[in-house]
């Protein structure tokens, strides 16, 4: 017979786990409050252990951070190795997490929509490195003053301190596997 679950112990550890996750993801309490609808005061008390975690607090936090409730409370995993990424659409692109959020890079499948041939690729700069592999279609990579057409089956890696941006090179959408650091994830997936 398995040992009983120490529910009180798991709930007592939520605050420090939540604070670590929030700071690792580079969120302020105010940003997390805006995304979850939970007051800054309640989040602060939850992190300090002055407020007991409850399902109505943990669900919106887990959704924002795209982690399971098990990960927030430190429960043992079920042993299921599958990643159940929820599609996120930003600026017409669809992102699906292919890895669990860990300390290093995160993998995403990204669908780049078809765009007009004269489309100007918006470039951004952030710390870190990006890597992507073109699964299907063709990708236009603007890297500083240069543009490259990356074909299906090709991969690229670059320093993200160089201004960069991507779009489908047409005529249809393109699909890529994208590995990026936390800084890259923040820039590409959050409204900065």
Considering the chains and any ligands shown, give keywords for the structure.
Jelly Rolls, alpha+beta, three-stranded antiparallel sheet, 2 domains, 192 residues, single chain, six-stranded antiparallel sheet, 434 Repressor (Amino-terminal Domain)
Report on the architecture of this protein.
Helix 2 (14-24) packs across helix 4. The protein has helices spanning 7-12, 14-24, 29-36, 40-48, 55-65, 69-73, 182-189; strands at residues 88-90, 93-97, 106-112, 129-136, 138-143, 146-151, 155-159, 164-168, 174-180. It contains seven helices and nine strands, in the order H-H-H-H-H-H-E-E-E-E-E-E-E-E-E-H. The protein folds into two domains: 7-73, Orthogonal Bundle (434 Repressor (Amino-terminal Domain)), CATH 1.10.260.40; 88-189, Jelly Rolls. A hairpin with a 2-residue loop joins strand 5 and strand 6 (146-151). By secondary structure, the protein is of the alpha+beta class. The mean pLDDT is 81. The longest helix has 11 residues, at 14-24. This is XRE family transcriptional regulator.
